[in-house]
Write a structure and sequence with these properties.
Layout (H helix, E strand, L loop, with lengths): L11 E4 L9 H16 L3 E4 L13 H11 L23 H13 L3 E3 L4 H13 L23 E3 L7 E5 L3 E5 L8 E3 L7 H11 L4 E5 L6 H11 L5 E5 L2 E2 L16 H6 L4 H9 L14 H7 L10 E2 L2 H13 L3 H11 L13 H7 L3 H9 L8
Parallel strand pairs: 1-2, 8-9, 10-11
Antiparallel strand pairs: 3-4, 4-7, 5-6
Helix pairs in contact: 1-9, 8-10, 11-12, 11-13
Length: about 375
């Protein structure tokens, strides 16, 4: 397999979420792995906000993302609150940055103004469907393709339709047929760049050496590779992380299967040390029997060559067990403070010092304390 650290002596990674809602644990796991790789090699970790889809943006999401990462101790070198030498890490504040690259593509004949309305494109889709063939915009590419025009989307014109082959630091050699390549929008009619365009420019300007992301991006990779070639820029190392699966392994863990907002785990009383430890072991094998890792342990042990290819199960029992182990390591004073935080108001003014060992023995997380109180299990001791 290709040496994934051969590109640069300086490792630079990023976590680049869209501010469209709560932070799913899958996103946090991606952030964690990118963070560990950067810290392992004394590199740089960037938090970038990809907010060019304004219709889907949820107010407060950027602050929520930052709070989630801070809770877990995942700190960034550059982020929304720490601009870099290339400026802001918020894409909507970088709109002028993308224009020279768009102009370069226009001048090389690799970008053109899309003359069609949404209704016309929908008609092309229906025509392809009726002909029982996949819809490819390049099949309907206009004969004359002028450069950018105000109010018109700017599309990438794929220079060469070919089979794509690339190396993935986790999956090895991957490939896709020419049907994976198609003309796609670079800049929308509202002036905002698409993800497909903006992330490649930002990665280039920010010096990203390693992109860690999940497998839903594999199908789009041929388009990205074509754009790298057209711009004449070197692509970063790509590492595809395994999906997080439900207990029954039948599909990815989703909202309907109990996937929660990351900060809900904080509310329930999970300790950040336990959560980091747990997430690191979803799809990564340290190569030993060790199960408990401090953040420093994880930084020193982490490597991409031990990231799994296949999906990894979210094991709730394992998370509860780990949380209990970290809870037991607390001092008696800290245990008492932790328990009081989850007791209903009527219990907080009581002296619970003598009950701490009893309660700790019977709980795995803070919300269990509240449940014991509500069930009357503590009344016997007062």
């Amino acid at each position: 397999m290709w040496d994934y650290l051969s590109m640069s002596t300086k490792v630079v990674t990023r976590f680049a979420p869209s501010p469209t809602g709560f932070m799913h644990i899958g996103g946090v796991r991606t952030a964690l792995f990118a963070y560990l790789l950067a810290r392992k090699h004394a590199g740089t970790f960037i938090l970038r906000i990809e907010d060019t889809d304004k219709e889907r943006e949820v107010p407060g999401s950027i602050e929520h993302i930052m709070e989630s990462l801070r809770w877990l101790g995942i700190d960034w070198d550059y982020g929304p609150d720490k601009p870099g030498p290339w400026g802001s890490t918020i894409q909507s504040e970088r709109l002028e940055t993308y224009l020279p690259f768009a102009q370069k593509l226009i001048e090389k004949g690799y970008a053109y103004a899309d003359p069609y309305t949404k209704e016309e494109v929908d008609g092309f889709r229906e025509k392809s469907k009726a002909e029982n063939k996949p819809f490819l915009f390049r099949d309907y590419r206009p004969e004359h393709t002028p450069g950018g025009e105000p109010g018109k989307p700017l599309r990438f014109k794929v220079p060469e339709i070919k089979r794509s082959v690339w190396e993935d630091a986790v999956r090895g050699t991957l490939e896709a047929g020419p049907e994976a390549l198609d003309d796609f929008i670079l800049i929308k009619s509202d002036g905002y760049p698409t993800y497909n365009f903006a992330h490649i420019i930002d990665d280039h300007l920010m010096g990203i050496t390693h992109i860690l992301r999940t497998d839903e991006f594999i199908s789009s990779t041929p388009k990205f590779l074509s754009l790298y070639e057209a711009l004449g820029i070197e692509r970063p190392v790509i590492a595809t992380l395994p999906p997080i699966l439900r207990d029954d392994r039948t599909k990815k863990l989703g909202k309907r299967d109990g996937a929660k907002d990351t900060l809900d785990y904080r509310t329930e009383g999970y300790l950040p040390e336990a959560m980091i430890n747990f997430l690191a072991l979803i799809g990564w094998n340290p190569g030993t029997e060790q199960e408990k890792f401090t953040k420093e342990d994880l930084i020193s042990s982490f490597s991409l060559d031990r990231v799994h290819r296949a999906g990894a199960v979210f094991n709730q029992e394992k998370l509860d067990w780990l949380n209990k182990q970290y809870l037991l390591l607390m001092s008696e004073i800290d245990k008492e403070s932790y328990i009081k935080k989850y007791l209903p108001e009527g219990y907080r003014d009581k002296n619970i010092s003598r009950l701490v060992p009893i309660i700790v023995e019977r709980i795995e997380k803070g919300s269990d304390v509240k449940e014991m109180a509500e069930n009357g299990e503590l009344d016997f001791y007062f």
